[in-house]
């Protein structure tokens, strides 16, 4: 996550967006394919930057919950209507003028392949939170290549 935030800091600054990070240095390792998770983080954070044309904060929180790691990416954008939330992750569904609808689909698939989940919480006018949970050090997880 730190690498992803560092990578996207310049883009965030151009859009008047700041990152607020809340994670403990003592987090346990998770069994994953790092480049795949980086793709997910880049996609979600870039989406968050794009939904805040006037700028704002993106809050990234990582914490341990029992046998799982919880990663949340929260923006201060316009929010997502309830009827659209269920369509997120469907192939070719997009709300962007130039979007393909594949970014979230791939992100949802990567997290599922890592035996994790993505839950989207949103309130119109207040922003959106993508909550990812992943197993900690699960030797039974087949890591996608």
What's the SSE blueprint?
Layout lengths: L1 H13 L2 E7 L10 H17 L5 E10 L2 E7 L7 H4 L17 H11 L3 E7 L3 E9 L10
Parallel strand pairs: 1-2
Antiparallel strand pairs: 2-3, 3-5, 4-5
Helix pairs in contact: 1-2, 2-4
Largest sheet: 5 strands, mixed
Number of extended strands: 5
The number of helices is: 4
Mean pLDDT: 88
Distance between the termini: 19 Å
**Which regions contain 5 or more consecutive residues with pLDDT less than 50?**
none
**What is the share of helical residues?**
25-40%
Portion of residues in beta strands equals 25-35%
Radius of gyration: 15 Å
Q: Any idea what the shape is?
A: globular
Structural class determined from secondary elements: alpha+beta
Order of helices and strands: HEHEEHHEE
If strands are numbered along the chain, what order do they take across the biggest sheet?
1-2-3-5-4
Task: Report what the structure shows.
- It is built from 4 helices and 5 strands; from the N terminus they run H-E-H-E-E-H-H-E-E.
- The longest helix is centred in the N-terminal third of the chain and has 17 residues, at about 35-50.
- The chain has helices spanning about 1-15, 35-50, 80-85, 105-115, and strands spanning about 15-25, 55-65, 70-75, 115-125, 125-135.
- Helix content is about 30%, strand content about 30%.
């Amino acid at each position: 996550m730190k690498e992803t935030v560092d990578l996207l800091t310049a883009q965030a600054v151009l859009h008047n967006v700041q990152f607020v990070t809340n994670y403990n240095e003592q987090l346990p390792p998770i069994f994953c394919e790092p480049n795949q998770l980086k793709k997910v983080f880049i996609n979600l954070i870039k989406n968050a930057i794009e939904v805040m044309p006037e700028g704002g904060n993106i809050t990234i929180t990582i914490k341990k919950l029992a046998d799982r790691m919880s990663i949340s990416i929260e923006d201060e954008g316009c929010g997502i209507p309830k009827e659209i939330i269920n369509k997120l992750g469907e192939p070719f569904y997009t709300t962007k003028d130039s979007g393909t609808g594949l970014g979230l689909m791939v992100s949802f698939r990567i997290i599922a392949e890592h035996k994790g989940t993505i839950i989207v919480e949103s309130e119109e006018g207040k922003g959106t939170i993508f909550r990812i949970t992943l197993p900690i050090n699960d030797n039974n997880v087949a890591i996608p290549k």
